[in-house]
Amino acid sequence: MLKKIVIFGVGLIGSSFALALRKANAVEQIVGVGRTQTSLLRAKELGIIDVISTSIEESLKNADLVLLAVPVAQTEAMLAAIKPYLQKQTVVTDAGSIKGEVVLAARRALGEKIGQFVPGHPIAGLEATGPDAAIASLYVAKKVVLTALPENSVEQIAVVAQAWQQCGAIVHELTPENHDAVFAAVSHLPHLLAYALVDDIANKPNADLLFQYAASGFRDFTRIAASSPEMWRDISLTNQTAILAELDAYIAQLTRFRAQLAAGDGDAMYAMFSNAQRARQNWQRSIETAEIQPKQDSDK
Ligand SMILES: NC(=O)c1ccc[n+]([C@@H]2O[C@H](COP(=O)([O-])OP(=O)(O)OC[C@H]3O[C@@H](n4cnc5c(N)ncnc54)[C@H](O)[C@@H]3O)[C@@H](O)[C@H]2O)c1
Ligand SMILES: O=C(O)C(=O)C[C@]1(C(=O)O)C=C[C@@H](O)C=C1
């Protein structure tokens, strides 16, 4: 049981963490720190947080756990503001979608207190933002990747891992470099492609006509283009190298495909479509097995 947790950023991710811990009866008091009073008042109204912080110093007194759930470019300034008031027993974690730059920012901001920071990333989310979008079950049977630091103690890592497990999540560990390369391929690139496609269509002279007939294929491919521009700007800039590598590989793939189409090479196109279909079906089956099983267990 955590006595006090402090959440910086009461948006989708921070508020869902709060709701999940409350549902599990795993926390006594939740304090919210925000950029705008509006989201903090709304989070309090919705019963997500108990207390709206008016001072970082006060909020950190006797805290067990601090979660940063803000756009990743805020990490360094936020940890620098926290550092003077960070007590020895408090563990700090984050939910940022990239880890390499977050770790560098944390080292710069926290200095000798870096051992108290256990970097994390829940692999669950939505295109919606803010406390109204929060869901208590968002993390159930979903992965949370920790990229623990050599300076973290086993106990500090356990505080963060156990909090996520209380939310129903399954904790994995990766190095920050592996993390950023993996998510550049399977999360960051798809978001950028969806944004680019919708922007391209929106800028066409006949955009209204095109959107009028866009249907479920368009909906499935572009849901994530409704995500937060601030969040995705920060992810793009802080994971620039890995995203550029994935973007180049994708452009090469499109160039290959374009040549096949221009040449009317149906066999080559069929081979690529079949390989992708098989891979997508296998992925769907394996993810369903992994994610449905724990849900059934927890229903017992
Ligand atoms: N949305 C997802 O699918 C998802 C999934 C996993 C991880 N993440 C990561 O979680 C973090 C939060 O994303 P989200 O989806 O909850 O976004 P969100 O927009 O719903 O919430 C972010 C909150 O942070 C607040 N904020 C911004 N700057 C702040 C500051 N300086 N001080 C205090 N509060 C501040 C905003 O007001 C907002 O309430 C991001 O780092 C993102 O990369 C998002
Ligand atoms: O489902 C969505 O809307 C998401 O964008 C979630 C998603 C993802 O790409 O899967 C996005 C970013 C996160 O860092 C983790 C999860």
From TrEMBL:
One Gene Ontology term from the biological process aspect of the record: tyrosine biosynthetic process
MF terms per GO, please?
NAD+ binding; prephenate dehydrogenase (NAD+) activity; prephenate dehydrogenase (NADP+) activity
Kindly give the Pfam families that the UniProt entry links to this protein.
PDH_C, PDH_N
Cite the entry's keywords alphabetically: Amino-acid biosynthesis, Aromatic amino acid biosynthesis, NAD, Oxidoreductase, Tyrosine biosynthesis
Q: Which InterPro entries match?
A: 6-PGluconate_DH-like_C_sf (IPR008927), NAD(P)-bd_dom_sf (IPR036291), PDH_C (IPR046825), PDH_N (IPR046826), Preph/Arog_dehydrog (IPR050812), Prephen_DH (IPR003099)
List the catalytic activities from the record: prephenate + NAD(+) = 3-(4-hydroxyphenyl)pyruvate + CO2 + NADH
PROSITE patterns with a match to the protein in the record: PDH_ADH
EC no. given is 1.3.1.12
* Residues of the Prephenate/arogenate dehydrogenase domain: 3-291
Gene3D superfamilies assigned: 6-phosphogluconate dehydrogenase C-terminal like domain, NAD(P)-binding Rossmann-like Domain
The biological pathway it contributes to is: Amino-acid biosynthesis; L-tyrosine biosynthesis; (4-hydroxyphenyl)pyruvate from prephenate (NAD(+) route): step 1/1
Q: What class of enzyme is it?
A: oxidoreductase
* PANTHER family linked to this entry: PREPHENATE DEHYDROGENASE (PTHR21363), PREPHENATE DEHYDROGENASE [NADP(+)] (PTHR21363:SF0)
The entry sums up its family as follows:
Belongs to the prephenate/arogenate dehydrogenase family.
Instruction: Specify the protein name.
Output: prephenate dehydrogenase
Q: Please report the organism this UniProt entry assigns to the protein.
A: Herminiimonas fonticola
